[in-house]
Amino acid sequence: MHRLIVALLAAVDAAIAVAVGLAATLAPLTLLWVFGLGGGADWGVLWPTGVTVWQLGNLVPLLVTLPAEYLAATGIDPSVASFTLSLAPLAFATFTAVFAARSGIRAARADAWVTGVVTSTVVYGALAAAAGFTSQNLVADAELWQAILVPTLVFALPAFVAAVITEWAEAGAGAIARVRDRVEAARDGWAHVPGLIARGGAVVVVGLIGLGAAVTAVAVLASAGQIVALFQAGNVDALGATVLTLGQLAYLPTLVVWGLSFAAGPGFVVGEGGVVSPAGTQLGVLPGIPVLGAIPESTTTWLLLLALVPVALGALAGWIARSRMVGPHAETPRAPTAPAERPLPATSVVGEDADERTAALSGLLATAPIVSATDAAALVGHVGSGIGEPDRSAAADHEHAEPIAARVVVTAGIAVVAAAAAAVLAACASGSLGPGALATVGPQPGPVAFAVGLEVLVGAAILLLAPHASGRTRRVGGAGAPVDTSWQGAGDGAYDVDSDTGASGEAGAGDTPRAPRAAGTAPSAPSSAETQPFEFPTIPARLLRDAGARDSEGDAPR
């Protein structure tokens, strides 16, 4: 696709992202202005109010200054008239990030990801600047540089990450494709390490978000009566209840992150000195927001078992990575070598039928691969019954396919990705909700990242670093019967063919047993009570002579 078209589409994506975000705030506020305030409402305040809410949703902190008339009417202490509001309703930031990621993926698939990401970021930043310049609010105001930079980063970072990941996975040319090709050219399992880390980390992050959503849903259902009571205590009408409900829905992703931090173990802070965690809960005075009624007043230590879920998610990610490291696509299979030809022993068979039979046998044996005694020993170690020790060659091949260093890096990488994602989510879901004790609300990024990283590391290590079963010991005969494996590793010359008769070195019925080999040479073949090595046999010349003689006498029955 032409770069100009990609730039235009990226600019449209950025404009739509800003427009939809602002519309999501202006629509309910317009209904409130029309049906709640009536004709006496100041319509000039509608736009600044909508933009201010949109900025808060995109992680821009606001400085709230309550007017003196409001303080006098409500009796609020003037010392708390000014405070910072930075606890963001993450529904806006989530929409912006998802829309930005879609734009980055589209630009990468059009082979112009740099053009698309840069253009959309510039357009989004310009629109954020225009909204900041035209929305001066005397009650809740934001620093102009923050109002421009922070929403732009919320859009630019997901677009860049999504574009780079798509370029890595699908691009056939370019700088990222060259780096990917160099990485994938590495041997001993290192070629797939970046992809396995990204895939495992994504599995863990999605699972953690689902865990937080499940914990939040259970808490809301368990505290439904308390939430309804807070709604009734607010004495709001239908319009006020609708606006209040929409505002709480905007904070739903924030509550999901709180649930995630609660399940991970550290919990979250609600005001100064107030902690909510599975180990214990201590709450102070909370504002009368209905959804805060879902915060439990007390907890049981049995809820610490929720920490096993991140461990299980790490184990799942480790299993996915381990299965791909040993799967058929983990390493490029080597091309099979051409089988060597085994010469047919000399024979004195004459006649047309004998010639045809000899030619057929020659073609059959020429296409059959030669399996030496050493290779046969390894094969019987898998499928035979008579090998008294595990197949060490299979263990060596498995260790080569799964180098321990690559597995350690994948394990640590998955844990680091999960910890980093948890830290980012915790930082976005924490902030200030008001003055005084409410200046610190939400999970602490450091403890949450440490707990999630450690739990995921344990789970991933169980599956990725555990030793693999390299073989089994098998026996023949009765229980405890000894097995002679001294013939293993004898080499191709373990069974010679008599150059005069063509008979093999095995002792059969009617044949004179061959003398024992000299010291230092491979021992004779094991007896019939033991398993023979797998080897394509040569055809003794005497059988071919007997078959030719019978054919010359009139095809006597065999």
How would you describe the overall organization of this protein?
The chain has 558 residues and is mainly alpha-helical. It is built from 18 helices and seven strands. The protein is flat. Pfam families: DUF6350. Keywords: Membrane, Transmembrane, Transmembrane helix.
Largest sheet: 4 strands, antiparallel
Please state the CA-atom Rg, rounded to the nearest Å: 38 Å
What portion of residues is helical? 55-70%
Report the span from N to C terminus.
Answer: 76 Å
Number of strands: 7
Structural class: mainly alpha
Helix-strand string: HHEHEHHEHHHHHHEEEHHHHHEHH
Q: List the total number of helices.
A: 18
**Strand neighbour order, sheet with most strands:** 6-5-4-7
Strand percentage: under 5%
How would you state the average pLDDT, rounded? 77
Low-confidence runs: 331-369, 376-396, 471-536
Shape: flat
Transmembrane segments: 80-100, 112-133, 145-165, 202-229, 249-269, 276-295, 301-321, 408-427, 447-466
Pfam families: DUF6350
InterPro entries: DUF6350
Keywords: Membrane, Transmembrane, Transmembrane helix
